[in-house]
Amino acid sequence: MRNRFKAVLIAALAVTTLMSGAVSAGAGSAGSLSLAASPAGTAPAPWTASSAASPKTAVPLSATAFKQIAAGMYYSVALRADGTVWTWGRNLWGELGVTTDNPITSVAAPVRLPNLSGITAIATNGDGMQVGLKSDGTVWEWGSITGLKANIRETVPPRQVEGLAGATAAVALKSAGAALKADGGLRVWTHDAATGKANVKQVSGTFEWTNLVACGDMAFALDAAGTAWGFGSRLEADGSMTIVNPYRLTGVPVLKQLAGCTSGIDRSGGAWTWTLSPNGVYEGQDLAPVKVTGKAKRVHPELKAKAIVPGGLLLTESGDVWRLDNGPTGKAGKVKGLSNIVSIAVGPFHNLALDAVGRVWGWGADNWNETGIVRPDGDGMVYAPKPIQTAMNAYVNGKLLDSPFPARIDNGSASVPMKAVLQALGGSFTVNNDYSTTITYKQSTAVLLPDGGFAEIGGKRVALPAVKLGFSGVRMIPVSLLKLLGVHAAWDGKLGELRLSGA
């Protein structure tokens, strides 16, 4: 243990980063491995690793390309090359951090997080807490955070972790956060429920680590020799913080990358998995150093691996994705329809993949729009990987639209959240007894008929593009209708920007 942390991209199960040769992953998505039942009372989350938010030089990407992905319990998070963070999926328990009052239970397309820019890496604990590392070394947090929720549905918009600077990597644990500093120092933090302030504590020692992931209340790291280390932190019921000081984790082969808390890649490209003792992962267990039980096992020895998610997916160095077990989206084996993949992320019920041009693919269960694809009819399953919906920045009169729900594109036609856009434009709307909607902008009025396919303007019936009108808590309207009312609209595909302005 020396006095310098080497900034490196972290490989873990649910958060990943696009780089020229490494993959970064995150907990349960990107921060911690949690086996506890979800707040909604669903089945226990699988062992998922949380990778640290830690930047590394990436190949050049367009501003609209994504470079890191994370998957949690029914939600997804992604970092774009321009330093903005986007999220979609379930928001029932405030997982997404898109708005304080939390009026919507899910977001069906990528929405940009407010007041957050300059982010170089992200991580999530899979249960709703996210952290981001900023280019200036500060750490930011958002979502469903233990100690900061007055009620179960409350969410925390992005905010800086005060008292923490000079960070080079950060992870979200189940009820705490952890960060490594440029001088080799290690910090952990929890939150004071009374004041909301972060309680940041220094862990004794300095560490030259090159990889960091988190699972439940524990985190793991690699040193330059490929030796695995563990440490932990937990917010106890009485408000105190328990810390497990760093220790060597035996029973794990020499690795070049931790791809999760129970998986890793050796220096020859071999993928390995192992089992950990439950303390530090299951709720109700005393927090203490976890141990490897049994022997580590080699997985798919015929493949050269870049990343692995135990019980989920394996990414090869050639950019192919392999399903490790039989499941609802198919049998074990190579996943069809994917190539040139640079990172993978796995939630309990859905999968994400990131390709070399920064495009995100989703598949699996889509109960809460977590795949990024409009939920299909029938069983709600997305059986084959598909590109997620377009991530759009919407501006109204030159200002970024303040809305927890994004603009969308259906069959080439853009739609926007009606209430937020009309408020920004200075317009208004009224829902009538026959379920039609009267929309007023300046001196113009349109009546949107209940089916959404037609509007009456000036006594004439006008056909409108087919767009999906309703999502949880949100009514959408076609941009073409606003244009008929005199609103100017322009779309820049290269920048992913929709600009609306008053006449």
**Largest sheet properties:** 5 strands, antiparallel
Domains (count): 2
Going by helix content, strand content and strand pairing, the class is: mainly beta
Shape: globular
**Termini Cα gap:** 64 Å
| Unreliable stretches covering 5 or more consecutive residues | 1-49
SS summary, helix count: 2
Examine the coordinates and then state which fold CATH places here, giving the name of the CATH topology of the largest domain. Answer: Methylamine Dehydrogenase, Chain H
Taking Cα atoms only, what radius of gyration do you get, to the nearest Å? 23 Å
Helical fraction equals: under 10%
Keywords: Signal
Signal peptide: 1-27
Protein name: Copper amine oxidase-like N-terminal domain-containing protein
Domain Copper amine oxidase-like N-terminal: 395-496
Task: Show the helix and strand layout.
Layout: E1 15-17, E2 50-51, E3 66-71, E4 75-80, E5 85-90, E6 106-112, E7 119-124, E8 129-134, E9 139-143, E10 156-160, E11 167-172, E12 177-181, E13 185-191, E14 198-206, E15 209-215, E16 218-223, E17 228-235, E18 241-248, E19 257-260, E20 263-265, E21 271-276, E22 292-299, E23 305-308, E24 313-316, E25 321-323, E26 333-334, E27 341-346, E28 350-355, E29 360-365, E30 381-387, E31 393-396, E32 399-400, E33 408-410, E34 413-417, H1 418-425, E35 428-431, E36 437-441, E37 444-448, E38 454-457, E39 460-463, E40 470-471, E41 474-478, H2 479-484, E42 488-492, E43 497-501
Parallel strand pairs: 31-43
Antiparallel strand pairs: 1-3, 2-15, 3-4, 4-5, 5-6, 7-8, 8-9, 9-10, 11-12, 12-13, 13-14, 15-16, 16-17, 17-18, 19-20, 20-21, 21-22, 23-24, 24-25, 25-26, 27-28, 28-29, 29-30, 31-32, 33-34, 34-41, 35-36, 36-37, 37-38, 38-39, 40-41, 42-43
